[in-house]
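FAQ
Q: What does a multi-component entry look like?
A: The components come first, one per line:
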Amino acid sequence: MATESQKKATVSSTVEDYLKVVLKIEDMKQRASTSRVARHLDVADATVTDMLRKLKKAGLLEYKPYYGAALTPKGRRMAVRILRRHRLLEMFLHQVLGYGWEQVHQEAERLEHAVSDLFISRIDALLDFPAQDPHGETIPDARGFRQVEDDLCLAEAEPGSYSVRKVTNSDPEFLAYLDKVGLRPATRFCLQERTPFQGPLKLLPQSGREPVYLGLEASGSIFVLPLKDRPRAPESDPRAPASRMAGDHAGRSGDEKAG
Amino acid sequence: MATESQKKATVSSTVEDYLKVVLKIEDMKQRASTSRVARHLDVADATVTDMLRKLKKAGLLEYKPYYGAALTPKGRRMAVRILRRHRLLEMFLHQVLGYGWEQVHQEAERLEHAVSDLFISRIDALLDFPAQDPHGETIPDARGFRQVEDDLCLAEAEPGSYSVRKVTNSDPEFLAYLDKVGLRPATRFCLQERTPFQGPLKLLPQSGREPVYLGLEASGSIFVLPLKDRPRAPESDPRAPASRMAGDHAGRSGDEKAG
DNA sequence: GAACTTTATTAGACTGGTCTAAAAATGAAG
DNA sequence: CTTCATTTTTAGACCAGTCTAATAAAGTTC
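Then the predicted structure of the entire assembly, as tokens:
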């Protein structure tokens, strides 16, 4: 019923992964260079060179040697389709099977290649056509439309009230930490002062109450406190696990290998 | 939570398919010869010879050249695990996502290799630990135990009252036909006369009402009628699609390639 | 038990996806 | 514009899984 009468140019899950990565890189407004793609996929550069040429030949992307790749409309459609499947599956695992938000990514990563269109359309309906996944990422609709929002990076935010728009990191440990600490999509908090922390939180400015306090250690780690416990000055805090874990991830805040 | 602390000798889905087929053949009390395995998997005999030797080396089965293969305990455990996954997934697709029983097999065939143990244990709980799949096949429990029942083949059945125990055929068209006609696991019916039909129906003698009549055309096709419409003598009937479809499948009633 | 048929195995090759190591192009710095 | 460092591509190889064609066991018949 769902997606009939379309040329099913079925591709391997490997190809799907390459397209997904190129889309992700393009979304970050970076050039999809051989090495960048290789880092995301954790394969050798030479492997990527080969593959990009194959994908070019298949009409899924443009590829200029020594420069990089860019999705064609066709490649983009396929990549967005996988993105949709991934996020819908994450939502399904979270809502229907009770997975923690730190558990959904890995499973969706495999399932996105294996489930049928029927499966996807059934869980879509079951979830009542959700607009976001458990991380707050927007789910492209069945036609492949995605509303791209201008999220605010934590590092760009002026002091004020915000809510967490999305968390762009899929590391289970880190997400479990955020969860423990009560920081998830839609959580509201007060940013005390500007911070250079580049972490995976994307924010939405917000007027309203501020139930949570979010601050920054000297080391660069983030920490979160109920507002009533807010310290006078946001400096060091003997919160061992929090410091450790947040620190770990703040360190790798650039881009590669984060998802 | 479910299946921790066990050596995860992860194998490819291809290997899982080979093991599954050998288990299936052994369950039919046949010798898992090279060519029989090859027919089930739809690959060349030479391919199977290679693979059986690899699987022997991996300790998953015994293999005697020019004779055939037999699962080792380890191979059997793995095969039963896949069987469990397959049937649980079928039940899940049917019950939770509303798949028709003719649709579940194909999807489960892919998913059984892709989902995690967590996924399986979650759907198991969600379905309240079902004992059978939509076709009436018994689902092995989490420890790998399976109760094997002595079902009656249609061809062995004397005239009398029965209910459908299970349908061991996964052809979507055929199953859709049986469904349309109201013949599924637990359906009760009256067998009018002994039939040489070797089809995929397994029966369980049953005392009770007989709402359905199942008979045999001269050609070997089956057909079904509500009891009140039952004809005096079970002969031809101008029910075109029924005759056609059932005939198609009764023809290939032996064993190979049926599932 | 010799001849023939069937079934199984070997031999050699191909594909997709990957690797390492070496060569080449690009780009940055003097 | 040369030189050096970085990035990318080429060359050659490997592995898993598959195929076809040729050969060799096993089984069947007379």
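Q: Is there any commentary attached?
A: Sometimes. For this entry: Residues 141 and 228 of chain B are 41 Å apart (CA to CA).
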